[in-house]
Write a structure and sequence with these properties.
heterodimer, A: mainly beta, six-stranded mixed sheet, five-stranded antiparallel sheet, 0% helix, B: 114 residues, mainly beta, four-stranded antiparallel sheet, 11 strands
Amino acid sequence: DQQVKQNSPSLSVQEGRISILNCDYTNSMFDYFLWYKKYPAEGPTFLISISSIKDKNEDGRFTVFLNKSAKHLSLHIVPSQPGDSAVYFCAASVDSSYKLIFGSGTRLLVRP
Amino acid sequence: DGGITQSPKYLFRKEGQNVTLSCEQNLNHDAMYWYRQDPGQGLRLIYYSQIVNDFQKGDIAEGYSVSREKKESFPLTVTSAQKNPTAFYLCASTLTGVGDTEAFFGQGTRLTVV
């Protein structure tokens, strides 16, 4: 049973437009959510996170939104750049559980 | 520069052989993790260790073993009991539990059974 789901395996966006990556979760105990970016044959790198006590967190071009009632989070990238092309994973954890649960990833392609 | 180093980057294993993947970190992090990535799937947790000389099974521990004799090192052995070992393996570390800290990942080891 997948606790963290990314239902869109891929997304293609024009450079300069907004990219919206979505993530759904089933475990209401999750209280911390993270987004990671991964290039081929490399380890994921941390992008942005959000605690369950917030509904929005911004860092430059990246904004994460959390809707706890819908058990849904999304990552917005504005404006999208070709260098943003990568696989994006969302992940969730229960505080101090030592276990990060990852979604299956969404491959983002930003077209020049 | 602080970080996590995994070696080797590529590893080939014959059927029936045990192989050990190395993971070293100089971030002074307490917790370390091993994940496996298969095509079209997320990262699945194999084992994790909160402190030296202690480790816990993750979701897919069967066929794997680990040790944590030093804070900096968390090697993963893929045993012959692992039925489908071909995958991309990622090691990660966090300062404490993952609840409020980001995980830092190594560059990964791609293991192929030949």
